[in-house]
From TrEMBL:
SUPFAM superfamilies: Resolvase-like. Pfam families: Recombinase, Resolvase. It comes from Natrinema zhouii. The lineage of its organism: Archaea, Methanobacteriati, Methanobacteriota, Stenosarchaea group, Halobacteria. One of its GO terms (molecular function) is DNA strand exchange activity. This is Recombinase family protein. Residues 174-279 form the Recombinase domain. Residues 20-166 form the Resolvase/invertase-type recombinase catalytic domain. InterPro entries: DNA_bind_recomb_sf, DNA_bind_recombinase_dom, Resolv_N, Resolvase-like_N_sf, SSR_resolvase.
Length: 317
């Protein structure tokens, strides 16, 4: 047992000595203030590679790039190189330099593993170049997934508690309302008038762009103080809280004190919106052969019209 363990460790060590490494470094302006410069990250990563006997083949640097996604120039080049299997391991100073989160790193690790490319963090216990390291990485990922599920569950429980008391789930009340000290919606009369005006304008104009134009022309502004757009108008018209329908978490109930627009007006707006949606769908659903036949019929009618006019206008006929 002991000899076998020693042979396994030696084998893993021999394997590491042969690894080809790519160093990745990323900074944002904020991180540079705390000493995590590109040069510092690269230097410490290269030092670690040398201590492990790894050959640094590539160095990828993304300066002042956000870690929220993978749309970073050098990061994308590195992923493309990984697909070509020109290196065996990606070395980075800290996980947040490489990925936005541990779960994101797990996803990337799974994709890189298909190309036999591993991950290694200089400052954290992330090392997928060995069986033991991969096992530890899976455990860390499982713990992170468990924590995320717990947070999601606690969030849902919190929303349910709010919903039982018909409280609003965030600090931003919809147009027409404000939050009272207990977190419930309270109607603001001036904004209520604007909401009703939007519904009535749409019934009259039957056009969200036209409603937005009229609102801006009349000097009305959105909650954020900006100009109205067709999308902003649509958000108001589709929000069922204005008819008093409260739908949060597992609670769906009519709350009369939240109602701003009467049912008949709301239903008429829904009917108009759906009618235009059906009209658009009908237009787009016409097959190409049908369109061609319709065009050909129009051409035939036009030719017949021209021919008839030509005959009537000929003095020799």
């Amino acid at each position: 047992m002991f000899d076998g363990s020693v042979r396994e460790r030696v084998s893993e060590s021999d394997k590491k000595e042969q690894l080809r490494a790519a160093v990745y470094a990323r900074t944002s302006s904020k991180n540079q203030e705390f000493g995590y410069s590109l040069d510092a990250q690269v230097r410490r990563s290269v030092d670690r590679c040398e201590s492990l006997g790894w050959e640094v083949r590539f160095v990828y640097r993304d300066g002042a790039e956000s870690g929220k996604d993978t749309d970073r120039p050098m990061f994308q080049k590195m992923l493309s190189a990984a697909e070509q299997q020109v290196f065996d391991v990606i070395v980075f100073w800290k996980l947040d330099r490489f990925s936005r989160s541990l779960m994101h790193a797990v996803q990337l690790e799974s994709e890189l593993r298909e190309h036999d490319v591993n991950l290694y963090s200089v400052t954290e216990q992330i090392d997928t170049t060995s069986a033991t390291g991969r096992f530890n990485f899976r455990n860390i990922a499982s713990a992170a997934e468990f924590e995320r599920d717990m947070i999601r569950q606690r969030t849902k429980m919190g929303l349910n508690e709010l919903a039982v008391e018909r409280k609003w789930p965030n600090d931003s009340a919809p147009l027409g309302y404000e939050l009272d000290p207990e977190g419930r919606l309270s109607i603001v009369e001036d904004e209520k008038k604007l909401v009703i005006e939007i519904f009535e304008l749409y019934i009259e104009e039957r056009s969200m762009p036209e409603v937005a134009r009229l609102l801006n022309e009349r000097g009305h502004r959105t909650q954020a103080g900006g100009k109205w757009s067709p999308r902003a108008v649509g958000d108001i018209l589709r929000n069922e809280i204005y008819r008093g329908d409260y739908d949060v978490a597992d609670v769906s109930e009519h709350v009369p004190e939240y109602q701003i627009v009467d049912d008949a007006t709301f239903e008429e707006v829904v009917s108009i919106r759906h009618r235009f949606q059906r009209d658009e769908a009908s237009k787009s659903s016409m097959s190409d052969p049908r369109k061609e036949r319709a065009i050909e019929r129009m051409r035939e009618m036009y030719r017949g019209y021209r021919s008839g006019n030509s005959t009537r206008g000929n003095p020799c006929s």
